[in-house]
Design a protein that fits this description.
Mean pLDDT of chain A: 95
Distance between the termini of chain A: 53 Å
Oligomer: homodimer
Strand order of the largest sheet of chain A: 2-8-7-6-5-3-4
Largest sheet of chain A: 7 strands, mixed
Strand content of chain A: 5-15%
Order of helices and strands of chain A: EHHEHEHEEHEEEHHHEEHEEH
CATH architecture of the largest domain in chain A: 3-Layer(aba) Sandwich
Shape of chain A: globular
Structural class of chain A: alpha/beta
CATH superfamily of the largest domain in chain A: Type I PLP-dependent aspartate aminotransferase-like (Major domain)
Low-confidence stretches of chain A: none
CATH class of the largest domain in chain A: Alpha Beta
Number of strands of chain A: 12
């Protein structure tokens, strides 16, 4: 081993869903939106001569548009390169104590990667047998709490009162609610930021706003929390949001009719698809997200996953304890879901399930 | 103080150059390129429907275009959100030892911010009285070395042999050469990556490629270094490069004629401007960058800075020991430099300098 190799930080990185190069596939594996972003986005991208200049390090225009949209003060709004960037910054900013940070054993699988990377101790209370969060598990000394709501990959949402109980019982910690999927049916904890100064509510443009490719996420909370977060962010990279992302983000926020129309479309596809899936022998909790998390009463998840992939249909399979017989299936267009259902019917028949 | 405030990471953030909102100013303060990016960039931005999808987490297309451009293997190429993102990732990945990381006392002022943020010990050997790096100061036990070449804000470049001496005498450390400004006249250390497996060479699209607004930087080095860097990066955020930045980056690399033409234009403006500045009583080293770092033989830098700002001309002034009588002036268009020179002539006359 070289001498300098001893000083390298060794990590086990997060493994994102497959991004097949071919265009001839049906991608139901990364919770992307099947519809394009608002047509206003195209106009917003044409300010090419300005690209020679650095973006606004304070991302004022997009923070303002979002603050107005959510009717909060701009000093309670922080914007980052996707909610992953926002959450990574939250971990490094707020979780510097000795007590463990708490998040469920089954949840977004980046939380433990950040904790490991930044040497943050953590514990993962178990979801119950129905994959519900047990709130009382979070009523103990801790260095911070992260709850995805709706949770991923379970697609289960808890009401605001549930989140409030956790926040109320943890006034000494920063509590983070990751609402990446809230637009598809969850109840937001946002109103609680007026009442609790230790609460952060995280959102993303990657799902409901069809802008995964532009990397836009944000977080809302007490202005002291937002200021501390901003200081750390400015110490890593002043200019993280591209000019294009800022412009496109503003355009998306201003086109609320488009946003509501396409979210409603996905919810309607999800409900129809859920009904058909149950008829095929799948069981799963009602989804409040743009995906369902389902297991079949006979066929094995890994077998379905592999057979679907052979047909050019990608769904997400996690080879992990407790969830290794489940599939996470993103809601695409009606046509895409019909093709997936047709595949399933054939697969289940030929495999005798 | 709230209990959770004890766990907040407190930092003194980097302060970027002013970004005035008004369009009626001459911005010679952030080393941006005065010319727009290649016209091919506009076409690259029009793939709007694809923005609903996550970008390629491995940034293959842009890494491939850059690897081909520099004639190196793609496994020796890492791309990030500007060179700031690349450098921040280098600090957290490679500088985990107990010995101090070394970089000059006068250099890019983000290096000490990253070291502080990540709790990395560091020492800053002094530049000599002519603002030259003293290479022997780096021949001692250390946890890593960072050299900006050309250095900022001095604009002074050292030859490849100088960098090689530092690398040769530090086989036990990772040595980083930050070549943000190399296209304007420096000699790159890139050929040395074939010879030394502990060397990283960092570049950016923000200056010579007129794409500061799209946040693209990269680093080249031994594939083991690049792999370790990539593992850490993937542990923070898999998707940092937007689809727009990847597409635009490829378009820029492919238009080499445009690139060369506009770099040559800036170099020619710099040479003419330098001559005039010396005639006005400024002294400064020959610049190998897209800025000069100058002091006047009578007038105070702070006074010039403030008077220029009143006229809507922004240059960079650092109120720091040893350089508080210097101005860093970005090379703009010929017309912009003429306006600045006209301002200076009037200022120096009326202030009796």
């Amino acid at each position: 081993m070289k001498a300098w190799e001893a000083n390298i930080r060794r990590v086990t990185p997060y493994v994102p869903g497959e991004q097949p190069k071919s265009k001839d596939v049906i991608k139901l594996n990364t919770n992307e939106n099947p519809y394009p972003p608002s047509p206003r986005v195209k106009e917003a991208l044409l300010n090419v001569d300005e690209l020679r200049k650095y973006p606004d390090p304070n991302v004022y225009d997009l923070r303002k548009a979002l603050a107005d949209y959510h009717k909060i003060d701009i000093n309670r709004m922080f914007v980052g390169v996707g909610s992953d960037d926002v959450l990574a910054n939250i971990f490094i900013t707020f979780f510097n104590g000795d007590k463990p940070v708490l998040f469920p054993d089954i949840t977004y699988s980046f939380y433990d990667v950040w904790a490991s990377l930044y040497n943050i101790p953590f514990e993962q209370p178990k979801l119950d047998d129905n994959f519900r969060i047990v709130k009382e598990d979070y009523y103990k000394p801790n260095g911070g709490i992260v709850i995805a709501n709706p949770n991923a990959p379970t697609a289960i949402a808890e009401p605001m009162s549930f989140i409030e109980d956790i926040v109320k019982n943890n006034q000494e910690s920063v509590v983070v609610v990751d609402e990446a999927y809230v637009d598809f049916g969850g109840e937001s904890a946002l109103p609680l930021i007026d009442k609790y100064d230790n609460l952060l509510v995280v959102r993303t443009f990657s799902k409901s706003r069809s802008l995964a490719g532009m990397r836009i996420g944000y977080v809302m909370g007490h202005e002291d929390l937002i200021a501390a977060l901003n200081d750390v962010k400015q110490s890593i990279n002043s200019y993280t949001m591209t000019r294009a992302s800022i412009d496109v983000g503003v355009a998306s926020v201003l086109d609320d009719d488009y946003f509501r129309e396409y979210v409603a479309k996905i919810v309607s596809t999800r409900e129809a698809f859920s009904k058909e899936m149950r008829e095929l022998g799948f069981t799963f909790a009602d989804s409040s997200a743009n995906f369902i998390f389902a297991k079949h009463n006979k066929a094995k998840a890994a077998d379905i996953y592999n057979a679907a992939k052979d047909k050019g249909i990608f769904v997400r399979y996690f080879n992990k304890p407790r969830i290794d017989n489940y599939l996470r299936i993103t809601i695409g267009t009606d046509e895409e879901m019909d093709k997936f259902l047709a595949f399933l019917k054939e697969f289940l028949t030929t495999s005798g399930c």
